[in-house]
Amino acid sequence: MGGVGKTALLEEIRRKVKEAEMFDLVIDVVVSQNPNIAQIQRDVADALGMSESSNKMLVTRLKQEKKVLIMLDDVWAQLELVKEVGIPYQEHNGCKVILTSRSAELCNLMETDVSVEVATLSEEDSWQLFRMRAGQVLESDDIEVVARKVAQECCGLPLAIVVVGRALRSYKDSRYWEEALSQLKQSVPSNIGNVEEKLYKSLELSYQNLKSSELKQLFLYCCLFHKDYDISEEEVTRYAVGENLLSNISTLEEARGRVHFLLETLKLSCLLLDSKKPRCVRLHGVVRDVAVYIGSKYDNHFLVKAGLHLRYWRERENFAAWDRISLMNNDLQEIPENPNCSKLVLLLLNMNPITSLPTNFFENMVTLNVLDLSDTYITCLPLSSACLKKLGTLRLDRCKWLNDINVVGELKTLIILSLRECIQISALPENIVALVKLKLLDLSYCTSLPIPRNLIPKLTRLEELYFRGCNVTEALFIETLDTIHSRLLPSDTFKKLKQLKIMGCPCLKHVFLPSIANEFQSLEKLEMKNNGSIETIITDKEVCDLKKGAFPMLQQLLLIKLPRLGCFFIGEPAKTLDWPSLEYIHLSDCSNLARLPIGRESAQKLKKLHVASLNDVIWFKTLKWKDNTTKSRFDIM
Asked: What is the C-alpha to C-alpha distance for residues 255 and 169, in angstroms, rounded to an integer?
């Protein structure tokens, strides 16, 4: 049964086992409804620190562990653990396996030694859990009477109890509770596979009680991803911005903040779960099933068939009815010509072995706002891409065979363009400068791509440019920087830039001319990381002087792994700046740096200076300061 607490119980077992040090290694694997043997093997191999994950190699490596526990969550179909996966639980007494499943029959098929049924909660335990989630509102006698009936309707299912309790905790009128009870007693649709009747009612009630349309829409967005996916806040943000889903938002950073707030609110509503990965969330399998149904049932018109190993796009299906389609993470290779998708605003085809798209594929998708073709094998975009007159987000990440994107320059409504790890692209189209609405351009690890000379200044609304691992040495060499500044980077180029990260540029020695640094009027975060050649931040090879009030909005300064960084300013090593907005400094592996550009009266808002390691602490104590008063201001945390 779904929602009874199997995964939560497994997590508690893992915690207890680790606490008691019963095993040398505990490995967690989520199997899910459509098991991918190769992915299961990769998960086990990753936990063992292995780069290869073949059956034989896993068997050999696991036998080397004296005591190892492998926890398989959400198993739906019989797995041959030894023959298919490479888990030698029968051959190695030190290798133990715990699995969870909704099927007792499957446990028998897998010949488990002990099977334990996870029962629903008793009426009293259900009420106690409900009280914890609903809170002080139950102190009203009128509400408590109805609330007990509401708790009973959850039928002892912890997921239902938690979700409903959270949904109703702010309502102090007993009439509202009566209405909620009535909704829970209504009949449910019969075509929602794998979802208990009472659980569906509880989850739909929680969805209907979300306070805003943005919350509801973002919750449904989370069902677009395949089951057990770690949903990245950044992915959700890039989709939401492309679809103009967020109201009263003007910058990408504001959009990220709104998405983070909405996802945190959904977690508080118990509709989303924490992920082990940073800035990610997860969706319980049952909650996702209900979200997929709700998305298809109401006016949102979601079609979600992600992660189902589909091999064909079913041409006979009526795609004209759908607003959003997710076919991500399947086995699609061939795509039909000119599908009728006249209402479509979002299309996710990422993580499919698609080699090409028909020339007329996009002709009937004139309303499309979001398109994701990442992790496909396409070599070019079809000519019909020019029909996408409303496209806001285009993701082509890791399309490693893609070499022709000339049509992109015609997509004049683009706000987000991501070409991350498109290693075959050697040139951006000349008309890319026509993308006057572009706010984010991600060219990270496009190793064959030079940055065009006229690109940055003509993208007048650009807020974020990512070029880690790119061929940007010409644009950043101090030897040519004055030429580039006069010919490529006119004044005010960086006036609206809010975040700048410079990583992995091995030839970069001197970062900014004073004239460029003076332009950073809106810069809030500056991060330099893994740049082994940087010697100075600001050079003096220019008549223009750095203003004492430079970087007026900078809040965060991160200098990480800059072993040759000797000073901030050539010629003026003791120079300090005002830093009126600076709140946080992070320093790591900058052992050649002799002083910080901070004086007695500067950086009055500084809250934290973080030094990463013991060696860094020792180095920090050797820094030179103008006076002891300045040095005493900082606490190393």
From this structure: 28
**Axis-axis angle for helices 233-242, 213-221 (nearest 10):** 120
Q: DSSP code of 517?
A: H
- CATH number at 472-637: 3.80.10
Tokens 């061929």 found at: 471
Rg (CA), the chain: 28
Whole-angstrom distance, CA of residue 251 vs CA of residue 496: 10
231-232 and 273-274 strand pairing: unpaired
Task: Please give the mean pLDDT across all residues of the chain.
Answer: 85
242 and 440 Cβ atoms separated by less than 8 Å: no
Neighbours of 21 (CB within 10 A): 8
- Given this model, what pLDDT does residue 623 score? 84
Q: At residue 260, what are phi and psi to the nearest 5 degrees?
A: -60, -45
CB atoms within 10 A of CB 408: 22
Kindly state the average pLDDT of the residues 331-338.
90
- Which pLDDT does position 419 carry in this prediction? 96
Which residues lie below 8 Å from residue 599, measured CB to CB, with a gap of 6+?
576, 626, 630
Tokens 């004055």 sit at which residue?
A: 482
Spell out the residues 6+ positions from residue 267 whose beta carbon is closer than 8 angstroms to its own. Answer: 273, 274, 281
Task: Output the furthest CA–CA distance in the chain (Å, rounded).
Answer: 81
CATH 3.80.10 range(s) for the chain read 472-637
Coil, strand, or helix at residue 59?
Answer: helix
Contacts within 8 Å (CB) and 24+ apart, 251-255: 251/439, 251/463, 251/498, 252/439, 252/440, 252/463, 252/464, 253/463, 253/498, 253/499, 253/524
Tens of pLDDT, residue by residue over 288-298, are 888 998 888 87
How far CA 470 is from CA of 235, 445, 478, 500, in Å, comes to 22, 5, 17, 15
* Parallel/antiparallel/unpaired status of strands 231-232 and 280-282: antiparallel
Strands 273-274 and 280-282: what pairing?
antiparallel
Which 8-state DSSP code applies to residue 452? Answer: P
430-447 pLDDT, tens digit each: 889 899 999 999 998 898
Q: Rounded to an integer, what distance in angstroms lies between the CA atom of residue 371 and that of residue 373? A: 7
pLDDT at 487: 34
- pLDDT tens column, 77-129: 888 888 888 888 888 888 999 999 888 888 888 888 898 888 888 999 999 99
| Model confidence at 379: pLDDT above 90 | yes
Instruction: Spell 98-117 as b/e; 16+ CB within 10 A means b.
Output: bbbbbeeebbeebeeeeeee
**Angle at Cα 536 formed by Cα 533 and Cα 542, nearest 5°?**
120
Query: In what side-by-side order are the strands of the sheet with 499-503?
Result: 499-503, 525-529, 556-560, 584-588, 608-611
Element (H, E) at 472: none
Q: Which two tokens stand for residue 236?
A: 């959700």
* Per-residue tokens: 214: 């943005």
How far apart CA 309 and CA 455 sit, in angstroms, is 40
Nearest residue to 423 (alpha-carbon basis) of 405, 395, 403, 394: 403
In order of 35, 190, 229, the CA distances from 39 in angstroms are: 8, 32, 12
